[in-house]
Specification:
- By secondary structure, the chain is α/β, with parallel strands linked by helices.
- It has two domains: 152 residues, Cytidine Deaminase, domain 2, CATH 3.40.140.10; 209 residues, 3-Layer(aba) Sandwich (Dihydrofolate Reductase, subunit A), CATH 3.40.430.10.
- Helix content is 25%, strand content 24%.
- The protein is built from eleven helices and 17 strands.
- Strands 12-11-10-9-13-6-14-17-16 form a nine-stranded mixed sheet, with helices on both faces. It has a five-stranded mixed sheet with strand order 2-1-3-4-5, sandwiched between helices.
- Helix 8 links the parallel strand 9 and strand 10.
- The protein is elongated.
- The two termini are 29 Å apart.
- The relative contact order is 0.12.
- Bound molecules: NADP nicotinamide-adenine-dinucleotide phosphate.
- NADP nicotinamide-adenine-dinucleotide phosphate (NAP) binds next to strand 6, strand 7, strand 8, helix 8 and helix 10.
Length: 372
């Protein structure tokens, strides 16, 4: 039997879940009947599968709090008596605990499904192998995919959250041909310089829409006065996070006056906020090690992904600490001559994806997740 064939169908189904599943992972499930007689009219054959194997049910997790993929797949089976001669394929280990919904392992036992094939183990400590153990302890034949990487990759953010106890981190900046991300005035104060063209903007806003939060350093907030909202792509606004040690950033900045997104300011001491959408949190010691800031964002504020938009100081800290999962670098066609140098990538770092937008280059790389 070609397990991979059906597991890949699970991946296709899982992706249909889109943003609705968040913060739950994307999961897809397929039920395949391998009974002695083919089932006319109650399923369809997959090209390349054996004569006797017929998909009789499919499902995926659509919405946080709603039925899991296994439940949807079982519900879609017309003749439930076939389940006892079937295999359920699922891209992620079935849950074995009561959350918003009852355990999927119990559903499998109730319907006497004898075989389960799983893409990847669930990193959530409430599951983490206990689903497999529970099923095996109750006589179910459980097989794990030889290579879990496509199943981990499907839920990169979810895996990073649970393994590293921090948000999924994407670094993004734009630099000139000669490697500067900003200018400097005659007194050496950083200044804002336009580096890329308008075509890049919608791409950046798409990145914003797909992250839970955006973070910038104090100097960027003060000099660029960005709104950090998503205005050009369907989807919501991320939460804005600003590092401002003394709480001295002027209240006239857009992140404070524009209430379209929540703003979180991290400072070393308690400061008052004049705006209801602005929340302030104290962190000591200061400057806070970036790893601690990220752990705080995940553990205390439940922030699951952060797009770090600069400046160089903040980006370099994250690069040096190695706590990032994706890098997106834009390169404009012009030169600045002198200014704020762009962050320095690790030696031998090589982007693996490049595309051109008008006259600007976009270079990207996702870190291969080595989870052990
Ligand atoms: N081209 C681009 O993509 C892009 C993007 C963003 C910015 N920029 C440019 O970059 C320049 C600003 O960059 P920058 O490197 O000078 O500054 P930055 O990274 O924006 O801000 C640095 C400041 O943020 C605070 N901070 C950073 N990390 C911290 C930590 N771990 N703990 C506590 N506080 C922390 C500190 O401020 P305090 O200690 O003083 O509170 C620090 O001095 C500007 O010219 C801007 O236009 C360019």
């Amino acid at each position: 039997m070609n397990h991979l064939h059906y597991l890949h169908r699970c991946l296709q189904l899982a992706r249909l879940g889109g943003q609705g599943a968040f913060p739950n992972p994307h999961v897809g499930a397929v039920i395949v009947y391998h009974g002695p007689n083919s089932v006319k009219g109650s399923g369809f054959r997959v090209q390349g599968s054996s004569e006797q194997s017929v998909i009789i049910g499919e499902g995926y997790h659509k919405q946080y709090g709603s039925a899991h993929a296994e439940v949807m797949a079982v519900a879609s089976v017309k003749d439930k008596s076939l389940l006892k001669d079937s295999t359920i394929y699922v891209s992620l280990e079935p849950c074995s605990y009561h959350g918003n919904t009852p355990p999927c392992t119990d559903l499998i036992l109730t319907h006497k499904i004898p075989r389960v094939v799983i893409g990847g183990l669930d990193p959530n400590p409430q599951v983490a192998g206990s689903g497999v153990d529970y099923l095996r302890a109750h006589g179910v034949d459980v097989t794990l995919a030889d290579d879990p990487s496509p199943f981990i990759d499907l839920n990169r953010r979810f895996f990073v959250n649970h393994y590293y106890k921090r948000p999924y981190i994407t670094l993004k900046w734009a630099e000139s041909q000669d490697g500067y991300i900003g200018g400097r005035d005659s007194e050496g104060t950083p200044t804002q310089v336009a580096i890329t063209g308008n075509n890049v903007k919608a791409f950046v806003h798409r990145m914003r829409a797909s992250h839970h939060a955006i973070m910038v350093g104090k100097t960027t907030a003060a000099i660029d006065d960005p709104s950090l909202t998503n205005r050009l792509y369907p989807g919501g606004n991320p939460t804005r996070i600003i590092l401002d040690r003394k709480g001295v950033l002027p209240p006239s900045l857009r992140v404070f006056t524009d209430a379209q997104a929540p703003t979180i300011v991290l400072s070393e001491k308690e400061t008052k906020s004049a705006f209801p959408h602005v929340k302030r949190h104290v962190m000591v010691p200061w400057p806070a090690p970036i790893e601690e800031i990220l752990a705080f964002l995940y553990t205390d504020l439940r922030i699951s992904s952060v797009l770090i938009e600069g400046g160089a100081n903040l980006l370099q800290q994250v690069l040096d600490a190695g706590c990032y999962d994706e890098v997106v670098r834009f390169q404009g066609k012009g030169e600045i001559g002198q200014g704020v140098a762009g962050p320095v990538l690790p030696r031998d770092y090589a982007f693996d994806h490049h595309l051109m937008m008008d006259q600007d280059w976009v270079s990207m790389k996702k870190r291969v997740l080595s989870l052990s």
